[in-house]
Amino acid sequence: MRQLNVFFDVDHTLVMWNGQLRPHALEVFQRIKEQGHTIYVWSGVGIRRYDMIKHGLHEYVTGYYVKPLERYKERLPDYKVDVTPDFVIDDYPQVIAAFDAGYHISDILKKDDAELLEVLRLIELCAAESEPTADETTA
Ligand SMILES: [Mg+2]
User: Domain-by-domain residue ranges, the chain?
Assistant: First the structure.
């Protein structure tokens, strides 16, 4: 099982337009950490440590970054992002397209919104699929 660097956007991904935390955020952050992955939070409008503290998620977050507003992957060094995002969750589809794996999350809550549970399921799948084979490790 590969351990992934999981990058969450904030606005309309974790924190909705009304300032409320998206349903299942706490349990999903807990589960991702339990599975040995590393959680980063980034945002195009700045470092969002305070928002994560306010919503009780900070203890699960390893680092905060400012997200490039375009050319997401190419510009990572400009933004001092020194880890590789393996799985990104964002309401903006271009961000997902720029990286190897991720989930385009709806920017509006569905009834009984369970999008973050789907994110957890996909992270589990991604980690399992990424497991190197014996051939790859010896190549
Ligand atoms: Mg967003």
Answer: 5-131
Backbone torsions φ then ψ of 98, nearest 5 degrees: -80, -15
Ligand 1 mean position, distance from CA 66 (Å): 12
Per-run averaged pLDDT (10 residues), the chain, 139 residues: 96 96 98 98 97 98 96 95 97 96 96 97 91 55
For the stretch 67-91, what's the b/e string if a residue is b when 16 or more beta carbons lie within 10 angstroms of its beta carbon?
bbeeebeeebeeeebeeebbbbbbb
The alpha carbon of 60 and the centre of ligand 1 are apart by a number of angstroms equal to 20
Residue 106 Cα to ligand 1 midpoint, Å, equals 10
Output the CA 107–ligand 1 centroid distance in Å.
7
Task: Kindly give the distance from the C-alpha atom of residue 134 to the centroid of ligand 1, in angstroms, as a whole number.
Answer: 39
The fold adopted by the segment(s) 5-131 is Rossmann fold (3.40.50)
pTM score of the predicted model: 0.92
Residue 139's pLDDT is 45
Residue 90 Cα to ligand 1 middle (Å): 6
